[in-house]
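2024-03-11 09:14:02 INFO receiving multi-entity request
2024-03-11 09:14:02 INFO entity count = two
2024-03-11 09:14:03 INFO echoing inputs for audit
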Amino acid sequence: MTQGSKVKEWFAGYVDAWDRFWFQPCLPYTVCILRLVVGIMLLYSHLVLAANLTVFLGESAWISNETAQQLHNGSFGFSDWGWSYLWMIDSPLWLRVHHGVTMLVTASFAIGFLTRLTGPLTWFLQLMYLHRMTGALFGFDQIVTYTVMYLMLSPCGSWLSVDAKLRKYFAGRRSKSGFLRWLLPTASPSVGANIATRLLQLHLCVIYLFGGLSKARGQSWWDGTAMWLSVGIYEYQSIDMTWLSSYPRIFTGMTHFTLFWEVFYCALIWPRMTRPFILLGAVILHGGIALFLGMITFGVMMIAANGIFVPPELIGRFVDRKGLQKAGVNEPAQSGKK
Amino acid sequence: MKAAMKPLSRPKRLLLSGLLIGHLLAVVLPPLSFQTRGPLGTSPSIASLFAWFEPYSQGLYIDRGYAFFAPNPGPSHLVQAAITNSDGERLEIMFPDRTQQWPRLSYHRHFMLTEFLEEIYQPPGPPPELQKLDPAEAQYWLGARARYERVRQSYIEHLRHIYPDRTVQVRRIEHLIPEILEFQQRPIELTDDSLYRPMLDVPVLLELDAENLPIAKEASADARGGESADRKIQTDVPASSSAPVSGSAPVSGSALGESR
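2024-03-11 09:21:47 INFO inference complete, emitting structure
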């Protein structure tokens, strides 16, 4: 074999691996479950906002429409590409009408009703709220929005959904109409499900890598006191954990675990051997944040997002064996392999 | 796996690959840009690359730093308001307040608003010396100060809307975390009065002489970083007072009160 053909073979192998990673069709079970969870979480967020709508939106909000617009449009010398039509809606009535429509669309997405349409619409509406509510946002808003953004690329409404019922109801018409086949997809392997899965997986890796690296710049994450400082912030506290101060070995151990888990997540989440332990770490870490640091929505949503690393075939084997056989899947997951 | 669908054609795979790589760059570059930022600004190589993806990242709200509780978990920042009616009766409230904002998600959004005011804080200025040494930096200072004042004024107007025909004054309060060694020897409540400090709003030059100008410039760079990143920073506000303040401490009638 010549040097040239060796390079060619290496390159072909690389392209093949890239294709398998991104374009191998995968079952939609994981994305369907995630749609249900993120849909409910986002609906809850909108519901809470509905009770305080004019506190956060409109002309008399904490950050008024005009101020919100100025924070983005360069009035103070800082501009960005964030834009929202909500900057222009002053009327409380119209804000309520708009919010009602948003909640209806989000609820439809959660239950998987016309998901091909309500998915992108849910994401777009959420994006408009984010660019309007500058200053009042935190990690929960980020992870919810990113998850919806990736799920809308997949047939996440094909299972555990109203769309699945509609698909059966319109089975005859669906076989003749390309539009209906697109609108009501089957729960079979698809490239869209794989691309959405990979994008969310990689985005999580980026979040944890930079979360870990930025912590690594702080002394308290190395001397172990960061966990004490975290439980010592009264505004975050939901359960008093200051008793931890009497157990330095425990709180410093928790600090070191958090730092190393975040830094190495992006490497150890991929091998099958280490993945369960990393996912267990996610449940412990985010469960702790949810229970003790008062960020229940953020903690729950991060645990749910980590579920994207659960192979869909594994879910299928437990909950939809018939569907799995129908889709022609007899072997355990391939999509979980790197 | 017996996939029912046809594999994607090569042109489609190429196109999708290009889009995916572009999107992933737009995901990675914002936190990288944030981490490669120093006293001299962002690393030029990262800044140049990120400039291409900035509109996309910002438009999709993926321009985040992901620096949660980093580099160190720091003190909280609250807003205290004094609301006075024409008879001189005064109501004092502190934000966020778990007893007033419920459920927790609503409370947390209020907490983020008070932290946001701290993140964008810029002292009055710029110092006259800076105008001569670095006019661009002085211009930046003015913009950052105007932004802080606009947001603070918006908070005041919101409270005026809730409490019409009353005077509203606000100030920022820092809620400190007890030192671990002190806490082990003498545990106190996290809500102990000694842990609350008002944040002064005074020109930097009142505290610094001309030799300290580089510190003033550094504070300005910090405020710039706060715009696009959700970091929890130990804010190095040079003018914070060490005088304790209780939840019922008067806001008005003091140099600390910021009112309109």
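2024-03-11 09:21:48 INFO post-check: Chain A has one domain: 24-326.
2024-03-11 09:21:48 INFO post-check: The mean pLDDT of chain A is 94.
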